Amino acid sequence: MTAVRRLLARARDEGEFSGAAWAYGGSSGPVEQGTLGTLSRDGGPAGEDTLWDLASVTKPIVGLAVMALVESGELTLDDPVAFHLPEYAGTDKAGVTVSELLTHTSRIPGQQPLYRRCATREELLDALVHLPLREERRVEYSSQGFMILGMIAESAAGSPLDHLVRERVTAPLAMDGTRFLLPERDHARAAATEDCPWRGRVVQGTVHDENAEVLGGVAGHAGLFGTVADLAGLGRWLCRGGGGGLGGSGSAGGGGPLAPRTLAVMTGTRTGGRALAWQAHQPPLSSGGDLLTASAYGHNGFTGTSLWVDPELDFFAVLLTNRVHPARTSDAIARIRRTFHNVAVTEALA
Question: Is the pTM higher than 0.85?
Answer without folding.
Answer: yes
